[in-house]
Amino acid sequence: MITGATSGIGLGCARKFAENGDKLILTGRNKKRLEEIRKELTEKGTQVLTLLFDVRDREKATQCINELPEEWKSIDVLVNNAGLALGLEPEYEGSFEDWETMIDTNIKGLLTMTRLIVPGMIARNCGHVINIGSVAGDAAYANGNVYCATKSAVKTITDGLRIDVANSAVRVTNLKPGLVETNFSNTRFHGDTERAANVYKGIQPLTGDDIADVAVYAANAPAHVQIAEVLILATHQGSGSVIVRK
Ligand code: NDP
Ligand code: 8X3
User: Fold this and answer.
1) H or E segment and range at residue 51
2) CA 108 to centroid of ligand 2, rounded, Å
3) Local confidence pLDDT in tens for the 246 residues of the chain
4) How much is the pTM?
5) Is residue 3 part of a domain?
6) What separation in angstroms does the CA of 212 have from each of 3, 5, 144, 193, 200?
7) Which CATH number fits the domain that encloses residue 33?
8) Closest-lying ligand 1 atom to the alpha carbon of residue 208
């Protein structure tokens, strides 16, 4: 199951797990994109079930999971990917609304999905949760404040889950990408495509597929190997705030 599978890293994961021969449950809130992706992957022989819900809508998410057809109920891998940044302003000038959306999506949405899916993994003593954190969760960068805090929370929540399931065969991974060229910056800058394009100027950024490769690797590691955390940066990115551009 991949949340936010309609774009960027989530879509990359959908394609790479499909190539790996897996059955996919793809979630998202863009009905048209979900259907296009389902068609693309189905034509290549992958079994795909799509679920339309916003991860902030706990009631709808719960209903979708409870109503999964019997043959789709045993989820082996949950990729908690749905997330976003909104705004890049000093903390004292940030938008309350943007903050709430990030917190509700990146933290509470991820927790909702974890709470709904992990009990089945524990019952079957089998499963893997792959959370998409960020280099932004390792240290704050200028004007990143609340977004960085949400990804820092993802790190702590992931570490907490890993501890809590250590008596089972369930594995827990935090993937922490750096600069990945997706729709992320368009969303962050509320549709200002020029400002978004500048984020990737003068550096070759990562792609959604690059992150998906690591997710597929972690999910297919031998059962006794738990890839706990991976920081994935573009070659000319030194940290969350150090980017060397040509
Ligand atoms: P994209 O904007 O390309 O993709 C984000 C996906 O999440 C979309 O499918 C989006 O759906 C979905 N989504 C957002 N909010 C919700 C919601 N409330 N309910 C359901 N789905 C939702 O960005 P990325 O692929 O880059 O982002 C994926 C994850 O990777 C995020 O958690 C992000 O924080 C993280 N990340 C991104 C990095 C980057 O540089 N791009 C680096 C490090 C981490 P919709 O199109 O409907 O909004
Ligand atoms: C996304 C990467 O550096 O823009 O989490 O915060 S960054």
Assistant:
1) strand 48-52
2) 19
3) 999 999 999 999 999 999 999 999 999 999 999 999 999 999 999 999 999 999 999 999 999 999 999 999 999 999 999 999 999 999 999 999 999 999 999 999 999 999 999 999 999 999 999 999 999 999 999 999 999 999 999 999 999 999 999 999 999 999 999 999 999 999 999 999 999 999 999 999 999 999 999 999 999 999 999 999 999 999 999 999 999 999
4) 0.98
5) no
6) 13, 11, 24, 25, 19
7) 3.40.50.720
8) 25
